[in-house]
Design a protein that fits this description.
Elements: H1 5-16, H2 20-27, H3 31-39, H4 47-57, H5 61-65, E1 72-76, E2 79-84, H6 92-115
């Protein structure tokens, strides 16, 4: 199961009565990029892009990212890890902490790859 961020962004934009170009301008991204995200052609928009879009829409980021009710698991190093489960309630602060943690992890991975001469 996956979260369709594009559909959620489009729904929130419609609910706010915003045109694509208006949201793109407020979120400081190109209209083409927003259209790609909303259409699902961009599967994993960057975390800061989603944050900017949520802020431009005036909605909590969890409205765009929160999983549907149920149990969500992923494989990490061959192990099944539970990410979300029934009854999980994330606050806006929880989502911001997650965003910051992901960004820090991305920086560490990039630095490690650079040290190894990888791109």
């Amino acid at each position: 199961m996956s979260v369709n961020i594009g559909n959620r962004i489009k729904s929130a934009r419609y609910a706010k009565g915003m045109k694509t170009y208006e949201l793109a301008q407020k979120a400081e991204i190109t209209e083409a990029a927003l259209r790609m995200i909303e259409s699902g052609k961009t599967k994993g928009p960057r975390a800061n892009t989603v944050m900017n879009i949520a802020n431009a829409l005036g909605v909590p980021i969890k409205q765009l990212l929160a999983p549907e009710p149920g149990v969500y698991e992923t494989k990490v190093a061959g192990q099944c890890v539970s990410l979300f489960g029934p009854g999980d309630h994330w606050t806006e602060e929880d989502w911001k902490d997650l965003h910051e943690s992901i960004e820090a992890l991305k920086r560490r991975i990039t630095n490690r790859r650079n040290e190894r001469g990888m791109k």
